Amino acid sequence: VQLVESGGGLVQPGGSLRLSCAGSGIKLDYYVMTWFRQAPGKEREGVAMIGSTDSKTFYDDSVKGRFTISRDTAKNMVFLQMNSLKSDDTAVYYCAAADRRWGTRWNGDFYDYWGQGIQVTVSS
Length: 124
Description:
Layout: E1 2-6, E2 9-11, E3 17-24, E4 31-38, E5 45-50, E6 57-59, E7 67-72, E8 77-82, E9 91-99, E10 113-114, E11 118-122
Parallel strand pairs: 2-11
Antiparallel strand pairs: 1-3, 3-8, 4-5, 4-9, 5-6, 7-8, 9-10, 9-11
């Protein structure tokens, strides 16, 4: 099983990036999918979540209205569209998959599979 993130990089404040998470050996539509991030010296935090059966979305207040999570079942991928980026969004971003039996939870302990992480840097 692998989750592979792509699309990170350096962007100026106010800019946009689209992160992708591709699954192999795993059918992502069975899982609750969440994007987490971890900035230097800070704890990991969940920023965007999408449910399995209904694809309902949830967001941390810090990104609400700026980030959009979505999934493409046919491509077995999950995306995070990030707009109006701020320097506070600088972090390593991870996609993670949790068995849908546990429901939609922000607690990382419920997540079975994690990507390797990808750097997002927002700076002028």
